[in-house]
Amino acid sequence: MYGGFDVFKVYLAVKLHFTTNYDFFEYGGKVNCKLDTFTKRNDRYFFHKLSTKYNKDEILDFFVANFCENSKKWVGNLLQNDGRETYLNYRKVKDNFKYHFRNDCINIFNDFHTKRLSFDNGLECFGGQHPRLLRLHIQKRISIQTTIVLNEILSFVKNWNKEIEEKVVWPKIALTIARMKPFINYNMTECKLIMKEVFING
């Protein structure tokens, strides 16, 4: 029967995926964890509580959404409203990605136009500073899902890794992008057509 221990195993697998070299997909989300160890944890109540709020399918998305946003979140904090809000925002984008990707592309187009930047310039790193697109990502004006898909199509992260000089904010974002990427489901052809429609046809 689905319960707190099952939730704990998903929590552990997702946490390891975002914070270590453990690969959730390579291991099928399986982790070495004994029920006896779980029952001795002081925070087991929180996992039991989460099992009453989210089913098997939802709990994975719940932890992915929250660890993507902050890999150091404590499980007790996840029961607060911000944990649920993060999850709902994530599901909103996931469940209608095409719509949100188009809106993000329009936001990027409008921002670059206002700043009088060409599309290429908006992705470029000048003087070791954050590119404009990265700033939009940091300001949460575009979703991480959009950033990931754009990078899959345009491959700018490898250049940013070489050119961005600060070594605090960007490396954390780059790691999150890399770890989050396998959780994103999208249609590459549809996304390319949306980009053409927004950025080329205007």
Report the span from N to C terminus.
53 Å
Derived structural class? mainly alpha
Helix content: 55-70%
Number of DSSP helices? Answer: 13
H/E element sequence: HHHHHHHHHHHHH
* Shape label: elongated
What's the total count of β strands? 0
| Rg estimate, integer Å | 19 Å
Largest sheet: none
Q: Provide the low-confidence segments as ranges.
A: none
Overall mean pLDDT: 94
Strand content: under 5%
Please explain how this structure is put together.
There is one protein chain. The protein has 202 residues and is mostly helical. Helices cover 68% and strands 0% of the residues. The chain has 13 helices and no strands. α1 (4-19) packs across α3 and α1 (4-19) runs parallel beside α4 (56-69). The longest helix is centred in the middle third of the chain and has 18 residues, at 97-114. The protein is elongated and about 60 Å long. The mean pLDDT is 94.
Set out the fold topology.
Blueprint: H1 4-19, H2 35-39, H3 44-53, H4 56-69, H5 75-78, H6 81-95, H7 97-114, H8 119-123, H9 132-138, H10 144-154, H11 157-163, H12 169-180, H13 188-200
Helix pairs in contact: 1-3, 1-4, 4-6, 6-7, 7-13
Summarize the structure.
It is built from 13 helices and no strands. With 202 residues, the chain is mainly alpha-helical.
Properties at a glance:
mainly alpha, 202 residues
